[in-house]
Amino acid sequence: MTAVEPQIPTDARPDALEVGTTATTAVKGRSRIPWRFLGGRAAFYLFTLWAAITINFFLPRLMKGDAVDAYLARNRTVSPEAADALRALLGLDTDKTLLQQYGEYWALLLRGDLGVSLLHGLRPVTEVISQSLPWTIGLVGFATIVSFLIGTIGGAIVGWRRGSRADALIPITTFLSTIPYFWLGLLAIAVFSVNLKWFPIGKAYGVGVSPEFTPEFIGQVIHHGTLPAVTIIIASLGGWMLGMRNMMLTVLDEDYITVAQAKGMPRGRVLWGYAARNAVLPQIQSFALSIGFIVGGTIVMEMVFSYPGVGKLLLDATNAKDYALMQGVFLVITLSVLVANILADVAYAFLDPRTRQTEA
């Protein structure tokens, strides 16, 4: 007597189109929290944070000279007694070993004390960074997000309509991305600031305007930041569009795209629900790194447009050998990159259910 194989209802059978794609939905009742995966990622990021902070401490101290020597080179009228007092204030006259200084650095760091900046008149490093960070995040962050969205959506459409006139956008945007940014910025200033006088030449706001939350000040910030933001978008648009377009061409040759089209699904659903959703996955990691390095600023942009930001702050601190300020800026950049990568992991798992199902 042969056993009768149980019949699976037709409604309970998985759709062949849904299997193996990021559109796959998790089976209810079988999902569980991947504690092993989360623990491994947490350990990895904690180790990375420790390594970055350790390098952040030792690297400036391997440089020749110190902040006081650089300060004396710029101000030769400082007396030897004043120079000794500055070294004592900055902790440069101590006979402690690097290991002891490393332990004290961690103790101060856990208390939120990043030291004082000699370059900025012995002001706390946290105060100096907090004044420059919003400008960088507001301008470069906004421009990076807009560039990513336009490039990704545009690349998906161009890849979907391959062989059409839309392909002409790829060489145009790629050519604009190959132009050196300083040349693109100077060209924009010459055309739109000097000749047409549509935008100011530089700075974050006009002379005589007090930085306060008023309509006049907000209008000044937007007016001064439009030209730098547009140049950043133009300079980075080609990479996002080209990358998304190439991934779309790869995804469109997959079998599940052919099956979706054969089943008569709407073109919009196939484009955004299947093709673009899979093609955007490699873009997520690149976007996370771009978001993380936003706080590093765009040094060239800040120099061309005389814009205040963290990038120029880091450059000045490096030239002045201002250890405390250098370490503070590096720490902010490190934390931003780590947080951006954590968010990228979460977004990747959300967009690709296969990731969290496999890890579970």
Automatic annotation (TrEMBL):
The protein here is known as: ABC transporter permease
Q: Which UniProt keywords apply?
A: Membrane, Transmembrane, Transmembrane helix, Transport
The segment(s) forming the ABC transmembrane type-1 domain are: 133-344
Q: Which InterPro entries match?
A: MetI-like (IPR000515), MetI-like_sf (IPR035906)
Q: Where can this protein be found?
A: Cell membrane; Membrane
**What does the sequence similarity comment in the record state about its family?**
Belongs to the binding-protein-dependent transport system permease family.
* Parts of the chain that traverse the membrane: 38-59, 135-160, 181-201, 221-242, 287-308, 328-351
Q: Which PANTHER family match?
A: OLIGOPEPTIDE TRANSPORT SYSTEM PERMEASE PROTEIN
Query: Topology with regard to the membrane?
Result: Multi-pass membrane protein
